Amino acid sequence: MSDHITHIPADCLHETLIRDWAAEGLAAAERYLAKHAAFAAFLEARSVLESGNGDSVQPH
Question: What backbone phi and psi angles, to 5 degrees, belong to 33?
């Protein structure tokens, strides 16, 4: 038998490291979705203004 100890990468990961990594991933996803939601709101507001409901100037 060998006295050599095998280290598995999972042994090196602490619960706090995984929690912090997951929290950063979720925060990045929330920032990404917020940017897309803001752009969608911009496009919606733009389409309402261009719909000719009297709020925008019509071209001649």
Answer: -70, -35
Q: pLDDT of 7-31, one tens digit each? A: 666 666 688 888 999 999 999 999 9
State residue 21 phi and psi, 5-degree precision.
Answer: -65, -45
Residue in the block written with tokens 């897309």: 36
Report residue 27 as tokens: 């925060």
pLDDT bracket for residue 35 (50, 70, 90)? very high
Concatenating the DSSP letter of every residue in 3-51 gives: -PPPPPHHHH--HHHHHHHHHHHHHHHHHHHHHHHHHHHHHHHHHHHTT
**Overall pTM surpassing 0.85 (yes/no):** no
